[in-house]
Amino acid sequence: MPQKTQKNTETDFIDKELSYKVRGCVFEVYRQLGNGFLESVYEKALMHELSLQGLQAERQIKIPVVYKNVSVGTFSPDIIVENKIILELKAQANLNIPICKAQLLNYLKASDMKIGLLINFTYPKAIIERFIL
């Protein structure tokens, strides 16, 4: 048990650095665009900013959902950064956090990734919540 805790701490530290860089990209996109655009606009702008910052990212890729060794469907996270962090983007004034959190946690379980960021480009600022599986 202590070994797992130590490993998670090391992983969390590395992912915190990456999370910090991603957060900077999110805030730069919001600083430039403000609020009021569709989610797809923020997604494209964030992809561009991540690239400018030298981060490898993919958007809307299909990831299989496997149940007892059988593929039962797919999901498409908004953005995956460095094959480590899933970004779920929203642009909603009234976000249902429990539903969005459940969606992101399910994405993490299905992908075997450990870190997810729920990002809402809303007024008066962009909000980022970090989830660890």
Question: What percent strand?
Answer: 25-35%
Please tell me the overall pLDDT. 90
In one word, what is the shape?
globular
- Describe the biggest sheet? 5 strands, mixed
CATH hierarchy: architecture: 3-Layer(aba) Sandwich
| Quaternary state of the chains | single chain
SS summary, helix count: 3
Give the N-to-C terminal Cα separation: 16 Å
Structural commentary:
The protein is an alpha+beta fold. It has a single domain, classed as Trna Endonuclease, Chain: A, domain 1 (3-Layer(aba) Sandwich), CATH 3.40.1350. It is 46% helix and 28% strand. The chain is built from three helices and seven strands. It has helices spanning 2-33, 39-52, 97-111, and strands at residues 57-59, 63-67, 70-75, 79-81, 85-90, 115-121, 126-132. The chain has a five-stranded mixed sheet with strand order 1-4-5-6-7, sandwiched between helices. Helix 3 (97-111) links the parallel strand 5 (85-90) and strand 6. Helix 1 packs across helix 2. The longest helix is centred in the first third of the chain and has 32 residues, at 2-33. It is globular and about 45 Å long. The two termini are 16 Å apart.
